[in-house]
Amino acid sequence: MNRLVVILFMLCATVTQGQERPFHLKTNLPLWALTTPNLTVEYQLAPKQSISLTGYKGDFVFISEMAIQGVNIHYRKYFNRQSDDLKGFYLSPGLAYYAERYNNRFPPTYGVRTDLGLQHVFDSNIIIDAGVGLYWQLYEEDGYTGEDIFRVQPLLRANLSVGYRF
Hints:
8-stranded antiparallel barrel; Porin; 166 residues
C-alpha cells in the first residue's frame, strides 16, 4: 500500500506541473472503517470530465477474516450547469480489479462498474463525494467436473468519500 501511495503522489506531481487543471485526492470513509486504507486521485481532463484511479489494500474482519486489494479506473462526466468544475451530479463508467484472500487463496476478479453520484466542493477546497453503483464482476470458479467456469455476478456498491482539491 505504501508503494501505491508514493506512486500516486508522484503521478499527481508530474501530471500537474505547469497545469491549471485541478486534481482531487479522496478517500472512501466506509473502507477505512473496515481497516482498508484507500486513496483516489481524480484528474480533470476537460471541463466537467475527469479520470480517477483508486487503490486499496487491507485486512478486515467483517463476516469472516479476509484480506482484500483492488484497483479501479473510471471516467466521470459531470452534469453541472453553473460551472466547468468537477462538482455536481456525475455518471461514471469504469473498470475494476479486485482480489480477496481467504485461506491463502487469491481469486482475482475483473469487472465493469457504473456509478451515479453527487460531488460537492466547498470554498475551502474540501470535497464530499457520495455515490451508488453497480459492479459486474467476472470471476473463475472450479466446477464439479474439474472444469473452470467463468461467472458474472452483479454487486451493488456505495461510496462516501472526503478529500481535498489541489
